[in-house]
């Protein structure tokens, strides 16, 4: 299945490169031949295209694009700011660091729909009512964006993405009324999407990686930063949206479950039980759980530290989770087996910092979800286990 999917995506990407080359050439020719054309010679129809979420991580927030029909030149293109190249060297590392270059691409509307039909994702079209001058200026802006290095930009999933680029174009070229759609924080909208699509563990992981920056309340110009949010904002502009069309491709049943809370609570209760039951087998299981949690928290803390301190993803900056979830758990692993005394000292330090954060969480400018709090409590119990191990050395 992976080979078939890879072949299909490769064919789609190859076709897009060919179409992009043809489209770029046509832009250059049109700009040369029609440099003096006025808006009277241009008949364009603009539509906001909003695509539902997919099954892959990079598709769970949906997608935004702009469809432009030119009835004079008989073209029907979709402009898409969410393109990136899977074959980029060090793709994963660049994606994590936030210096992966995204770019605008253009494809025919029929090819664009084919991809969403194949993956079973619904597509929603909002036809926009713009003046000829507004259409002409926006179309020219797209053409300029398609030339050379103008195509590329550094992706930021709050301030600069496939949706915000279209949103900024709407604000610049359309008579939009900037009604509020009631967004409380960036975090809430980013994290809720994976949960809604049955990817609760992904949602919790993202929740841990997001820092205090993502807990800011967006202003009116920032709040429509995701596809569904921009669609909602545009739906409030009845004077601007003259028609809405829905193309149904999704035949899947609604996804249920995907919430890790029950598992986390069950694991915590099991951990407490085996650690408290004084028998040989339960104490061995407890030690295995101690070691496993030290490793998991240490690796997770290293990732949180990297995303907070070294990546360009600003939403991950100023992450207070580092107070209790940090790479020092990895240091505790060899200490756990070498010195019970120093294991206890580390347990006291870890416990104190975690407890202080939990007590002060009301004043910390970062939201901690219920799932994250359960993990914090699990960390607290692990830390008491380290302290208990240190007491045995006395």
Q: Number of DSSP helices?
A: 13
**Helical percent range?**
40-55%
Terminal CA distance: 58 Å
Largest sheet: 7 strands, antiparallel
Radius of gyration: 26 Å
Q: How many β strands by DSSP?
A: 7
Provide the structure class: alpha+beta
Task: Characterize the structure shown.
By secondary structure, the protein is an alpha+beta fold. The protein has 2 domains: 211 residues, no CATH class; 131 residues, no CATH class. Helices cover 52% and strands 12% of the residues. It has 13 helices and 7 strands. The chain has a 7-stranded antiparallel beta sheet with strand order 6-4-3-2-1-5-7, sandwiched between helices. α10 crosses α13.
Quick structural summary:
The chain is an alpha+beta fold.
């Amino acid at each position: 299945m992976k080979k078939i999917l890879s072949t299909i995506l490769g064919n789609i990407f190859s076709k897009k490169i060919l179409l992009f080359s043809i489209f770029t050439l046509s832009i250059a020719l049109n700009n040369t031949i029609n440099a003096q054309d006025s808006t009277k010679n241009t008949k364009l129809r603009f539509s906001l295209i909003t695509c539902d979420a997919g099954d892959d991580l990079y598709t769970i927030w949906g997608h935004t694009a702009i469809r432009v029909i030119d009835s004079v030149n008989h073209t029907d293109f979709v402009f898409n700011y969410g393109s990136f190249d899977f074959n980029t060297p060090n793709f994963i590392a660049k994606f994590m660091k936030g210096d992966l270059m995204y770019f605008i691409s253009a494809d025919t509307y029929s090819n664009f729909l084919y991809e969403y039909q194949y993956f079973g994702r619904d597509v929603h079209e909002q036809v926009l009512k713009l003046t000829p001058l507004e259409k002409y200026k926006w179309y020219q802006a797209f053409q300029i964006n398609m030339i050379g290095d103008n195509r590329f930009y550094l992706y930021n999933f709050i301030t600069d993405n496939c949706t915000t680029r279209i949103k900024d174009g709407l604000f610049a070229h359309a008579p939009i009324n900037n009604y509020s759609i009631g967004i409380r924080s960036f975090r809430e909208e980013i994290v809720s999407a994976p949960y809604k699509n049955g990817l609760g563990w992904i949602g919790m992981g993202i929740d841990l990686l997001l820092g205090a920056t993502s807990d800011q309340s967006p202003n009116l110009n920032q709040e429509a930063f995701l596809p569904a949010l921009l669609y909602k904002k545009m739906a409030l502009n009845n004077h601007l949206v003259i028609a809405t069309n829905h193309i149904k491709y999704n035949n899947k049943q609604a996804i249920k479950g995907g919430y890790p809370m029950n598992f986390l609570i069950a694991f915590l209760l099991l951990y407490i039980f085996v650690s408290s039951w004084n028998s040989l087998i339960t104490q061995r299981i407890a030690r295995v759980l101690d070691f496993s949690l030290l490793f998991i928290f240490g690796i997770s803390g290293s990732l949180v530290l990297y995303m907070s301190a070294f990546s360009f993803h600003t939403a991950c900056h100023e992450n207070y989770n580092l107070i209790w979830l940090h790479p020092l758990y990895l240091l505790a692993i060899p200490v756990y087996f070498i010195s019970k005394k120093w294991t206890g000292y580390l347990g006291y330090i870890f416990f104190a910092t975690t407890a202080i954060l939990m007590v002060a969480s009301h004043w910390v400018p970062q939201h901690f979800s219920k799932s994250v709090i359960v993990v914090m409590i699990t960390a607290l119990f692990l830390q008491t286990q380290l302290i208990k191990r240190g007491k045995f050395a006395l």
